[in-house]
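Entry:
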Amino acid sequence: MKSVYRNPVKEMGEEGFFDVMSEINSNLLRITKTYAGSYPFANIAQRRFASVGAKPTVDGKMDFDLRTAFPGPKGQKVKVQREWLQAMYSMIINKHSNMDWDVGV
């Protein structure tokens, strides 16, 4: 992740990051209502390449259901554990390797 993308995340701070991710989660939840079995997710991975064009070696990867970071409607089947998103934020701002992250459905 280039610093041009990482620096705005650093500048918004952890609470700002949570606010943005909460809005993303809400938007993705609207989409998941249309497709049974779908859910919002987030992942972060550390990869390296032996050479240009080589397949990457994944040194570490974390995937989680984005709903774990935010209280949902009564009866939500996913347990809220903000630590997943806190860990992702910490990895983004303190990265010292080739780190990729994404959010989707």
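DSSP finds two helices and three strands in the chain.
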